[in-house]
Design brief:
The protein is α+β, with helices and mostly antiparallel strands. 51% of the residues lie in helices and 13% in strands. The longest helix is centred in the first third of the chain and has 18 residues, at 29-46.
Length: 247
């Protein structure tokens, strides 16, 4: 008996959800940044003159100078006579070398320095004011003149009581330790550190380069704090020799 055997038809596999096979690869931020940098580099190299720097013509001294400027340096009463005696030495380098105008105002007791049409360097006014200020603080004209000739010289001032709050005889002894007998200690520090030092009551003024001012200030602070001069001499000589070897 022939019977039609029908084979069971395999059921179709259920379709995978749409999200199962549609994974999107996300690029990392680093790769995107590298690609942007590469594209930017290609754009710079492709341009005919993209890598060339812009050329600007030099500015004339008239446009760079601008309006006239003035600086005033006040002169205390005890420096009137030295200023009068050395006025020609102060007047000559400011007018001839820096091309500035200078005068002493008798009413306000100030040294007034002003630029003019002949002034070429914009830094001349600062140099001249530092020069006059150094003389007013008590430096010799020859030492203060180095502020005009050299660029890397500075002035620094501090009070003895800023290092240690001293009063009465203790303050006098500290100032005496800085000066030494007949100024010996002060001269030794000046010669070793290649600076110039002025002691005016409780004020200490130092003229020199940045590194030399640092050595002199350290030595003076040690003397104020009570270190014996022999120990201070040894320390600054060691530091000065190391600095000389370094440079």
């Amino acid at each position: 008996m022939d019977t039609d055997k029908t084979l069971p038809v395999a059921a179709a596999a259920p379709e995978a959800p749409e999200d199962a096979g549609s994974f999107t690869t996300v690029k990392s931020k680093k790769s995107q940044k590298r690609k942007r940098d590469a594209d930017a580099a290609d754009m710079e190299t492709e341009g005919p003159g993209a890598s060339k720097r812009p050329q600007f013509p030099p500015i004339s001294s008239d446009k760079l100078r601008g309006p006239d400027e003035m600086r005033k340096v006040s002169v205390p009463a005890h420096r009137y006579t030295p200023l009068k005696e050395n006025w020609l030495k102060i007047f000559t380098p400011i007018v001839e070398n820096l091309q500035l105008q200078v005068r002493f105002n008798l009413k306000t007791r100030n040294v007034e320095i002003k630029t003019c049409k002949d002034t070429q360097d914009i830094g001349s006014l600062t140099k001249a004011s530092d020069f006059v200020k150094a003389f007013v603080l008590g430096f010799q004209v020859e030492d203060a003149l180095a502020l005009i000739r050299l660029d890397e010289l500075f002035l620094e001032s501090f009070d003895v009581t800023d290092v240690k709050p001293l009063k009465g005889d203790h303050l006098s002894r500290a100032i005496g330790r800085i000066a030494g007998k007949g100024g010996k200690t002060k001269f030794t520090i000046e010669n070793v550190t290649k600076t110039r030092i002025v002691l005016a009551e409780t004020k200490v003024h130092i003229l020199g380069s940045f590194q030399n001012i640092k050595m002199a200030r350290t030595a003076i602070c040690n003397l104020i704090l009570g270190s014996p001069p022999s120990k201070v001499y040894g320390n600054i000589r060691v530091v000065a020799s190391r600095t000389a070897e370094r440079f």
